[in-house]
Amino acid sequence: xxxxxxxxxxxxxxxxxxxxxxxxxxxxxxxxxxxxxxxxxxxxxxxxxxxxxxxxxxxxxxxxxxxxxxxxxxxxxxxxxxxxxxxxxxxxxxxxxxxxxxxxxxxxxxxxxxxxxxxxxxxxxxxxxxx
Length: 131
What we know:
A hairpin with a 2-residue loop joins strand 5 and strand 6 (66-80). 8% of the residues lie in helices and 49% in strands. It has helices at residues 42-47, 110-113, and strands at residues 2-5, 16-21, 25-31, 39-41, 57-63, 66-80, 83-93, 106-108, 118-121, 126-129. The chain is mainly β. The protein contains two helices and ten strands. The protein has one domain (2-129): Beta Barrel (Cathepsin D, subunit A, domain 1).
């Protein structure tokens, strides 16, 4: 298993991990074991070179704060925790336009991790992943 250190420096004690789109744009995601899907901020998509007008469509999703509408996109290459997904569908939401500011740019959901064994060791601030 491959091990990755994470930082719990946020006020919410959120597990923050690094991710990369297309091997060139690195950003930070919260590891959210309660999230079924991976969701990223639309600014990350834009800065990664994607056209925001090329959405596959909209979806209503339920969050802890209620229902929101997200756009869906296929990401050519998404890497996080040593896992690489190609042509991977993500949900995209404009965080800033909706007044959301945080130390991270979205969440890695269980759809990204579902084919891998992973273990979160809070005491060591470490995620182990079978890749």
